[in-house]
Predict the structure.
Amino acid sequence: MGSVGAKEVPVLLSPEGLRIDGRHLEELRSIRIVAGALHGADGSAFVEWGANKVMAAVYGPREVHPRHLQQNNKAIVQCRYNMAAFSVDERKRPGLDRRSQEISKVISEAFESVIFAEEFPRTSIDIYIEVLQANAGTRCAGVVAASVALADAGIPMVDLLPAVAVGKVGGAIALDLKKEEDNYGEADLPMALVPQSGRLVLLQMEGHMTREELAKALDLGVTGCRAIYEKMKQALRDRYASGGGAA
Ligand code: CDP
């Protein structure tokens, strides 16, 4: 442990270039994706990503609630991202705080840009993301889970949406930050990619990096997204090969 002022901060990068959990800079945490994890939803997926555990359920296209949000020429896409009170070390106040509202909004907008919404006028496609255990990158895990859940529900989309956070830790650009890296690192940059076109449909950044570092981070994030994309497709193949996912 190094110390900065009164606060003890962990050493994020060893002299050998290894991270706090022994990973290399360009290494993802382990990811397991189960498509169709719930019986009741039209589509669902469960994602375990490092110490994150995230469930996504999709309903629709269905009637719009509240009614005044209905659009005559297309479906609306509504997402609710929520963190369970027990998902973090210090109990989180239940309910939609500002952070959850912001994340729900950016995820809705990301999916609006890939779903063929005009095929379902006057309906709603509802995405629920529940974070059961959080360890940084939960909005990205939520996008991955929701994306597989949308595909499981048969919602037509341009492509699946892999997502990952890149950042700067111990002065170096690193892929897929875990909690200590997110908390004590210099920058955090979550992104979601449309693999087919290379378009980024979610991109946020907290912290500081130079333009050169940003370019490197984007490249690393895109590579990470492409690796996650393969796991998402595999989860959907497994679902249909076995004829089901829900226990
Ligand atoms: O989860 P994500 O990285 O997308 O969002 P963040 O706002 O950068 O949060 C990073 C991490 O901080 C979360 O994944 C949680 O592990 C933690 N956190 C927390 O402990 N309590 C909160 N109220 C919010 C986040």
Observations:
- The pocket of cytidine-5'-diphosphate is lined by residues 88, 92, 99, 134-139, 165, 179, 182, 188, 190 (CB under 6 Å).
